[in-house]
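Technical appendix A lists one of the benchmark inputs used to test multi-chain prediction within the project. The record comprises two sequence entries:
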Amino acid sequence: MKNLQLLIALILGLTAYPALAKEKLTVLTAFHEEVVSRFETAFEQQNPDIDLQILWRMPHDAQPYLSQPQQGGVDVYWSAAQQNFNVLKQQGAWQKLGIDRSGLADRLGAMPLSDPEGTFCVSEMAGYGFAVNPAYLQKHGLPLPKTWLDLADARYQGHLALPVPSKVGFAPMMIDSVLRQYGWEQGWAVLAGIAANARLVESGATFITDIIGSGERGIGPAIDFFTASAIANGAPLQFVYPEPTAYSPAHVAITAASQHTEAARRFVSFVLSDSGQKILFHPDIRKLPARPGVYKDKPDGYFDPFAASAEHPVVYDPNGAIQRLALNNALFDRLFSDHLQRLQNLWLGLRKQEQHADAAKAARLLKLRQLLTAPPIAAAKAQEPELQKLFARRANDTQAEAEAKSLEQAWAKDIEQRYAEAEKLLLELER
Amino acid sequence: MNARLPHLLLSLSCCLAGPPLAQAETGFEIADASREAYSRIHPDLPKAKSDEVFRGRSLFRQSWVIPPAKDIEIAGLGPLYNQISCLSCHPKNGRGQPPESPQQAMRSMLIRLSLPGEDEHGGPLPHPVYGGQLNEQGIPGVPGEGRVSVDYREETIKLADGESVKLRKPVYAFVDPQYGKLPADILYSPRVGPSVFGLGLLEAIDEQTIRRLAEDGKRQGLQGHPNLVWDAERQRSIIGRFGLKANVASLKQQIAGAFIGDMGITSSLHRQENCGAAQTACKQAPSARQPELSDAQLDAVLLYLRLLQVPARRNSDESNVSQGEKLFTEIGCGTCHTPTLITGDFPELPILSKQTIHPYTDLLVHDMGEGLADGRPDFQAGGKEWRTPPLWGIGLVERINEHSYFLHDGRARNLAEAVLWHGGEALPSKQRFADLPAGKRQSLIRFLESL
């Protein structure tokens, strides 16, 4: 009898409640669940009349999705995928944001924070730097690195973990920022020195923080929020922002096809609001707000890019670099991933010789260093739009893939000859 | 990578300032009270296993995408679903929470559905259209099935020492059902996503142990019993131990069930998309590869969950904690919340065998009284019966999940309320708790917080 009463009570409960009509708003993103769920909950509390649906897609898959008719039903695109925002803007995929932008910055050093035509703007940023295990550094008597060039120092040999840009999502722009900061030729030389010191990390399943936190290696170039979040959750790590720091910006835009423009504007405004931006401070997120004013409430030790840029102005603008990321990735693999052990043996030999260098050896050592550091194509060639496009297209275009492969084979042959020559030269020096 | 490296790798952030000290670690217990304490993987793994376990971790954290998609290995969300990742309902491998207001959506909670009667194997009879679970979300072009809003009614109870406690009872309402009105006799059961660590250990407890616990309970006047459920892989009934009613036979089936039920992702155990009769758009929606979750992916998630460690107790030498521990036994809580068990042989993953563990569960289903009843039988678990939930790690919920909502539907706002909701077989223990002076009640709560 009691069961029956319970059932009746529950059924009454089910049928008695009035329906609440909600407007559905679809947001496409590639942010992690920790980020999305907190924004979802907070937005919903302030906007109970909007039913937020999250769709998730990696950047390379989001662009075709948003290019389909009606843009796949998406109202808002919110992601760290600058290329998509630019390419889709050319296709007329966005409408003007039409939101109050007061309190939002337009630039961070060389990096523009919003589309000048007002179709998308930065929602948050992440900085590139070094995840560091202080106990490891102390144990091995290593100084804290401050710049990318520091990481190429012989003292760090065997102590680094470096993500492979063709395999780890955040790494291409990070690698490109080194090439921009030091210039094409010297940038590859710096990267070669870093690769000589590093274990290469390919798997996205193994986090850099795992490797550095475990003490398997002491320093890992990485994007900041993984490490900052691990630190906030108790990991005995440190994150070093190099001087200057490069950033990966995330953006937000409203689709041209949106049938829910006002709701979309409310979402975008919320993401960019004080309360939305402060969600980024959460220990499980730890991204860098795009609204300078909220840093006055930042947790202790939180990095402030706006303050840091006053001391070391930001010099990297990802806008100009995106087209060549695929080309960089291919060069990185042909130069380093394909020959890591060989490369490291050669660097070991080079550094030994350099320690005991005399004037008679200087020219040959310089030659040896050049053989190990020169990229197979010159800066001007790498800037050719057609070449960049060829590599950018290779994933979706068999013809482009064949041409890219053919070029890679030529590079591989060149690199092989150089390494062979370097080995011969090293033998001579060692005699 | 050497054999001990994964240990270092996976426990990297266990040492931190702030949280109370934990006991030394043994076996699967790890001395970690940080916000990562539910996410530690057993250290002693060969390299091949550690690669697989990392893949499992990634898949557990993965947000899935709707097909068609370039990333075919993570495609298959929907057509109907509740959430887009495992992590959504099990944040940081811990507990989800209920909505706080009728307007809020269920983000880490869901509603099971069935009609009166049984399916061919004695399980719940799914609704012909809505199936066995309300999927609030649909991919674009496929309407979600509707929404359930939760409101609460408070009632005040008085404890023996005069203290009053407000308990809140949830009231559920189906809103905007998209595929026709639900029948008046629909049975439904709300479920908050439970913690997922230590599940490998629960799986490794042998059936004899569970049966013995039932016999021991009977001698003490309890009616707790194993829930015999259909094991689709073995094609026979066995003791269920997963799910809030012990209604799932194995961890693999629990995982595959959650993939199809919560995310609409097919696997070799659930080859059909979760579209009911008359859900035309759902049936016409594109699928990813079939099955959408490969066996290798399912095995990786299974391995990850089997190898998650359990936080060791903290502060057990504090006097009020040890007093609380004594009271826990004296008032009878420990009869169902069995503190210590030893796992049996587990040839599939020998590292789980013969482990002395402290789960504080007997894996039996018990009558918990009218107050907690959902009125929805599930195999041999009746409408008032629930599986004794493990209590290990419960004291870290607030730190890790940033809330303190407990019980199957999250109605209890703290541990004391959770105890005071106990009824049925647990009524005498609840009454003894309510009769304790405030200081002793607090000691018992402090003990629970030490778990």
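Chain A touches chain B through 59 residues (CB under 8 Å). Confidence is low (pLDDT under 50) at residues 1-19 of chain A. Comparable benchmark entries are summarised in Table A2.
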